[in-house]
């Protein structure tokens, strides 16, 4: 377990990437969402592991990338903020088919006990070439994660729908309590 690895998860289009940019600007190490990187890579190539084509293949790639990300930042001495992580990918794989959550893998690669979730926020939700699902699918994803993290022993804190600076302050205050 690494108490310095902090996951920001939740609803697609809920402001996670913007929040990580803010935390990075404040000097913290950040890790970009695996899914976005995979989609960009797949769209530039064969495009077979895209979530709208083969969710299971996409989720397996996201799990592998999440593990690589953890190994890459293991030497960081301060907080490292992750835009999603291994649990997100495992929950997607579980939803895609019969593989189920690999609890042993997840337990061996735990994050900070507190996970921050961005709630569904229709006013800022947008689709683009890498996020093709609608708001209803984003809400369903959020609900899966809202259940998955506590089931795995994490404390979930839902972020307020407020400006990015206030959200970053909220997270830092919560971590220092």
From TrEMBL:
Highest rank taxon of the organism: Bacteria
InterPro entries in alphabetical order: NadR/Ttd14_AAA_dom, P-loop_NTPase
Domain NadR/Ttd14 AAA: 6-167
Protein name: AAA family ATPase
Originating organism: Pelagibacterium flavum
């Amino acid at each position: 377990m690494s108490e310095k690895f902090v996951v920001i998860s939740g609803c697609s289009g809920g402001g996670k990437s913007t929040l990580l940019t803010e935390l990075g600007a404040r000097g913290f190490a950040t890790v970009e969402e695996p899914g976005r990187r995979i989609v960009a890579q797949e769209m530039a190539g064969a495009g077979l592991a895209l979530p709208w084509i083969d969710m299971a293949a996409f989720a397996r790639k996201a799990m592998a990338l999440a593990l690589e990300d953890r190994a890459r930042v293991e030497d960081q001495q301060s907080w490292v903020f992750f835009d999603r992580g291994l649990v997100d990918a495992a929950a997607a794989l579980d939803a895609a088919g019969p593989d189920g959550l690999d609890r042993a893998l997840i337990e061996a690669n735990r994050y900070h006990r507190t996970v921050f979730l961005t709630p569904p926020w229709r006013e800022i939700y947008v689709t683009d070439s890498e996020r093709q699902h609608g708001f209803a699918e984003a809400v369903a994803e959020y609900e899966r994660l809202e259940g998955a993290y506590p089931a795995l022993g994490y404390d979930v804190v839902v972020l307020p729908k407020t400006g990015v600076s206030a959200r970053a302050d909220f997270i830092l205050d919560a971590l220092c309590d």
